[in-house]
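Running this now, will post back.
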Amino acid sequence: MKANRAQGDKPVVRGYAETRHRAKSWSKERRAIARIEATKLGLDIRFIVTSLTHGSPEWLYDSLYCARGQAENLIKLHKSQLASDRTSCRSAVANQVRLVLHKRVNVIEAEAVANAVAEHARTSPDMTLGVVTFSTVQRDVIGDLLEQKRRTDDALDDFLHEGSHEDVFVKNLENVQGDERDVILISVGYGPRTAGARLDSMSFGPVSAEGGERRLNVLFN
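Update: finished.
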């Protein structure tokens, strides 16, 4: 993998491998999945052990276990910033549901925005970018996701590098003032719990407060 990365001049090359292992305390063999990543800094190898018999090594590592780990990280952020004590890390699905249903956090949209920033960094790095959210918590979740993604994405890391007079910014609506960029991504965050359903509330954070229309005017100008 190191040779493939060097020959292709790629920032990261990732592969997956699988074997079976049985510890003395286990009643049967289990699948051991390895994620092998070659970067400019060398090899990074991580393992998971699972009793699941279905699913490819890539799907198990990236889509299942990493998704659960990310949910747990967001739960910790959720707890620290919202003083929440009714969240649990035992179930990845339950954690995602709790975060999505919370009125101030939209994890699905935050991930979509972070992915859009990463795509912009790869395809349009010469165009400046800013992200504006309708709440401070949504702002912080997007910022946290970008920090996680830049660790394994050289293009994104370079794009987020500070030092330019027009650095990438992630701000909540109240803090946008005179920030001009070629591209602005807006994370509204509010929406129905299920597609096509009615909203639980017509409150849209700072936009619904007195002077909210002026904040929107500043944003779009």
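Residues 121 and 159 are 6 Å apart (CA to CA). More later if anyone needs it.
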